[in-house]
Amino acid sequence: MSYASDVSTGRVRANSVDKEIDIVQRKIERDDVLKAAADAPDLAAWLDGLAPKGDYPALQKALTDLRAKRAASTYTPLPDISEALKPGKTDSRVPILRTRLAELGLAVAPPTGTADLYDDALVALVKSYQETNGLTVDGVIGSNTTRSLNTSIDDRIEQIVANLERRRWLPEDLGPRYVLVNAGDYSMVFVDGGQRVFESLVIVGTPKNPSPEIQSVMGGFQTNPFWTVPPSISGEEYLPLLRRDPNALAASGFKIFSSWSDNDSELDPTTVDWNSIHPKAFPYRIRQDPGASNALGYIFFPFSNKYGIYMHDTANRWLFTEGSRNFSHGCIRLQNPLDFTEKVFMGKNGFDKEKVKAVIAAGQQAHYTFPEPVTLYVTYRTVSVARDGAPVFRDDVYGRDRRVVRDMGKPRS
C-alpha cells in the first residue's frame, strides 16, 4: 500500500517540504487501491502502471544510467575564484577546466598553444555547455558556470530523484487547456486542446525571493496597470533611496500615499523624515503610474494565490537575453505577453491584438476576460529529458531539490 501511494502520489507531502510550495497534490483512496490490486491479473504490471507517464520513464532510465556510472566517475572541481576566466586569457584553471569537461563526457580538443591558454576551441566547447545547461552563453567562466561545472554526479543523481518525486505530485492529466511555468528552467508553455500552441521565456524570482510552486486559474488580463509596491520592497529597497533623496522615485512615476486606505492622500516626500522609518514597518503606500518604466510593463495577468504574485510584462526586456533569469521578487515576467493573449483568445470575443496595442499606446486601462479560464501550474523542474533521452540539468538555485531529497529520507511518521 505504501509503495502504491508513493509511486503514484509522492513519497512526501509537497506543501510540507517548503513554504514556497502550495499545490493540490494527487491523492489515492486506500480502499480503491486495495480492490484494484486484488482484481489485477498481474500484480507486478499493475504496480508498474501506477507511475506517472510522459517523461517519467526517461527520467528513471537517466537515474539508472547515472548510478551505473557513479563508481567509475572522477571529479575534479574547478577552483571557485572571484575573478572570472575570460576567453583568450592565460590562467592556471584552464587545464583543470579541460579535465572537468572531459569528466562530464565532452570531447575536449588538445590545446592549440600553451596548456593554460583559454583558446577558441575550448571557449566554443564551454559555450555549448552553457547553452545546454541554461547558462548565459558568453564563454566566460564566472560563478554560475563554475557552480554548474562543479556539480558532482551524486548531486545530479539527487536532482533526478527530486524531480521524479515532484512529477509524482502533479496530476497525470493536467487538463486540455493550461499554462505550465517552469521556474527551474525559466520557461512557459500554453497547451490548448492537448497541443503546445505557445512557448515563451520567463523571468522568475531570485533565490532570496523565489517563485512559489502553485496551481491557480487565469481569467484575463489588464492593460497599463498601476504597480503597488509591496511593503517589503518599499522598506528594503526604496527606503534607502528616499533617505538619500526624497525625490528619488518621482522620475520613474512613483507616488507616495499616506496610508493603505482607499481614501488616502498623496504625500510630498520632502516632508517625511525617512531616517525615522523602520524598513520592517514601512507605513506608506508607494504606487507606480502606468507607462514605459512601470515594473509590470503594459500587461498584467492576475490570478489567485497566497503569495501575492502574478504574471506580467516587463520594462526590462534585455534580461531575457540572460541564461539564468532569476531576477524578480517572485512574480513571473513573460517575454511576449501580447502574443500569448492572441493564442488564448484565438479570435474569439472579437479580440484583436492590434486594437489592444492601440489601447496600450493611448495609455488606457482596459480589462479583457478570456473566453475560457486557463489553469495555471507553476512548477520547479530542474531536470528534463532531451529527444535523445539524455538528461538536461538546470542549477537548483532555490535549493528545493535538496530539501525534497532530505524529506524523502525521513522516517515515516
Q: What do you see in this structure?
A:
The model has no long low-confidence stretch (mean pLDDT 92). The protein is of the alpha+beta class. Helix content is 32%, strand content 18%. The two termini are 15 Å apart. It has an 8-stranded mixed barrel with strand order 2-3-4-12-10-9-5-13. The chain is built from 13 helices and 15 strands. The protein is globular.
Number of strand segments: 15
**Alpha-carbon distance between the two ends:** 15 Å
Beta-strand residue percentage:
15-25%
Topology as H/E string? HHEHHHHHHHEEEEEHEEEEEEHHEEEH
Name the average pLDDT. Answer: 92
User: What class would the helix/strand composition place it in?
Assistant: alpha+beta
Helical residue percent band: 25-40%
Low-confidence stretches: none
- Strand arrangement, largest sheet? 2-3-4-12-10-9-5-13
Number of helices: 13
**What sort of overall outline do the alpha carbons produce when their principal axes are compared?**
globular
Radius of gyration: 25 Å
The biggest beta sheet, please? 8 strands, mixed, barrel
